[in-house]
Amino acid sequence: MRILVTGSAGHLGEALVRTLRTTDHEIIGLDVLDSAFTNRVGSIVDRGYVKQCMRGVDAVIHTATLHKPHVITHSHQSFVDTNITGTLNLLEEAVSAGVRSFVFTSTTSAFGDALTPPANAPAAWVTEDIKPVPKNIYGVTKTAAEDLCQLFHRNHGLACLVLRTSRFFPEEDDHKPLRQAYPDENIKANEFLYRRVELEDAVSAHLLAIEKAPSIGFGCYIISATTPFTPDDLLDLRTDAPTIVHRNFPDYKDIYAHRGWSLFPGIERVYVNDRARHDLGWRPRYDFRFILDCLQQGLEPRSALARAVGAKGYHGQQFAEGPYPVE
């Protein structure tokens, strides 16, 4: 099978190409940046170039995008061009080329303000049934691209699956007070309770999506580590997360104390991956229990794939306030 991976110089794109190169598939890595995992350098905004890259392609994994850290450094038009027009170009050329599976990498950020419950309300139990309320141009363009995928399935029969991935980037958090309050590895370990996915697991979800798309037709799935929480935990989770976590993981306190770590006092949302596990047969390996076991045994909690890909950053410059520009 010939597979086109867009964004092949990015975190997920590189991880996908690295993994797929170990199979019998023919891989086309497309990106605006040259890299060891890119063999077609060009923009998805260029319809003619997309057409060239799509020849003979059986499946598309579309990870190329402008991200949230670009909101301050890039114009709204740039987001529209890349995230909407670029996706439209790929969808139209995929239909023309007779592509069997189209997998679009979206983001849990698309939920936007729907992720933040009112004060004194329980934490949000975030499933695919929640209607997104985008709060920036990134969210707006990603949800618009999702709608294009659904439209092309409806009107052209293109098998399209949308994967809303939670955080998998290794870079520091973009929220300065959080960076100042917690060590970076502490933040990421905490996030496996409710809002992070390991890169290796994100890759496996995409590969399953290629396989399942023709039989499913269209679907939207949250790709995040399996949470230990249930809806019954949501009220207390908002105000006293450590107590709920201790109930599930009595050993976490000693493991964390050994490193001088702490949990967040409250958690405001929980991503639920039930639908992806059911429909795709996805079995994410990395969760909070896995992370605790690694820490207890002195093992690296990141996958070998994540370590190989490493940190990339989102800009070619440094900023005074940290890894990302701030308003």
What this model shows, in words?
By secondary structure, the protein is of the alpha/beta class. It has a domain at 2-173 and 198-226 and 270-285: NAD(P)-binding Rossmann-like Domain (Rossmann fold). Helix content is 41%, strand content 13%. It is built from 13 helices and 9 strands. It has helices spanning 11-20, 47-54, 76-97, 137-156, 176-181, 184-191, 199-216, 234-239, 241-248, 252-257, 274-280, 288-297, 304-309, and strands at 2-6, 26-31, 40-41, 59-62, 101-107, 124-126, 160-165, 218-223, 269-271. Strand 4 (59-62), helix 3 and strand 5 form a beta-alpha-beta unit. The mean pLDDT is 94.
Task: Give a brief outline of the structure.
The chain has 327 residues and is α/β, with parallel strands linked by helices. The chain has helices at residues 11-20, 47-54, 76-97, 137-156, 176-181, 184-191, 199-216, 234-239, 241-248, 252-257, 274-280, 288-297, 304-309, and strands spanning 2-6, 26-31, 40-41, 59-62, 101-107, 124-126, 160-165, 218-223, 269-271.
CATH architecture of the domain at 2-173 and 198-226 and 270-285: 3-Layer(aba) Sandwich
Percent of residues in helical segments?
Answer: 40-55%
CATH topology of the domain at 2-173 and 198-226 and 270-285: Rossmann fold
CATH superfamily of the domain at 2-173 and 198-226 and 270-285: NAD(P)-binding Rossmann-like Domain
What structural category arises from helix and sheet content?
A: alpha/beta
* Count of beta strands: 9
List segments where confidence is low: pLDDT < 50 over at least 5 consecutive residues. Answer: none
* Intertermini distance: 45 Å
Main sheet: which strands, in order across? 3-2-1-4-5-7-8
CATH class of the domain at 2-173 and 198-226 and 270-285: Alpha Beta
Strand content: 5-15%
